[in-house]
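pinging the channel bc i need a second pair of eyes. not urgent but kinda urgent?? the chain im working w is below, pasted from the shared doc
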Amino acid sequence: MQNVKISSAKPSSQSKPVLGISECLTGSEVRFNGGHKRSRYCTDVLSTYFDFKPVCPEVGIGMSVPRPPIRMVAKGDDIRVIATDHPDQDYTEQLRQYAHQTQSQFEGISGFVFMQKSPSCGVNSSKVYSENGYPATSAAGAFADEFMKLNPIVPVIEAGQLNDAMLREHFLMRVYAYYEWQTEVMANLTVNALLEFHRRHKLQLRIHKEKAMREMGRMLADLKTANIEQVAANYIELFMDALKKPVRRPQHANLLYRIQKHIKRCLSKDEKAEVMGLIEQYRQGIVPLVVPMTLLKFFVNKYKADTNIAAMYPYPSELGLQNQI
């Protein structure tokens, strides 16, 4: 297990989670050509629910606007970021070092939205050219790659991936889970806070990676003599890794079945049939996730069952994230 440093600081805004973001996505004209790549989803939707901390690593290391384009080139086992027209100008180490220089700036953020295909900010889509000038593969940009190494538990996504309903929902679920960890657990770390967090998120963990859920349960089984700070650091590393891979419709359907089990003794025969019917329609792709989930929430409230389950309220419903999955 990595020795991951976990910040105990709350995010900078007490009312909203904070996202790091590539500055060009906010509409700032910081691109190499003097333009921007404004993401309307970020500026028009996410800005209602999040505060942003923008950064342009290329401007941050002193490059001008506009500026000559740069690209990633494979040289042996290494990938370098060089000026397209002047291969002797290498910006790799400056961009990597800038990730270290800005660490304190991003302390307390709950996620990061990067610009896709950028040689500095791409997460997994930046073109890597061979030395003969032809595209060879793709990789993470120099700044984003270093940021992710320094902050392995912070959820990240490329702006282009926010157009995919499943990836968008998955990213924001992880962001809000991590924000809860920052504000409800690490802001005042106690055994009870740690146990309550695990209880609330058990269903999410179960459908993502049940083996990890069980491992975390064993980790929390006896905290009387444990170093709680170290347990917390190990726990959140496992937790965020367990949620790293998106789940698909069958796993979401299994989640719905498990929520239904919490209240099935309260339901009448007809109510149970209605819930099970909608879950099966969701499994078959006939209705979106929001349909059976809304009915389950109705019955949970009707029968005053335990509603303190993160899987039922993983993010603000106003985001409409379950309307298309």
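so Residues 1-13 have pLDDT under 50 and may be disordered. and DSSP finds ten helices and eight strands in the chain. — does that match what u expected or am i reading it wrong
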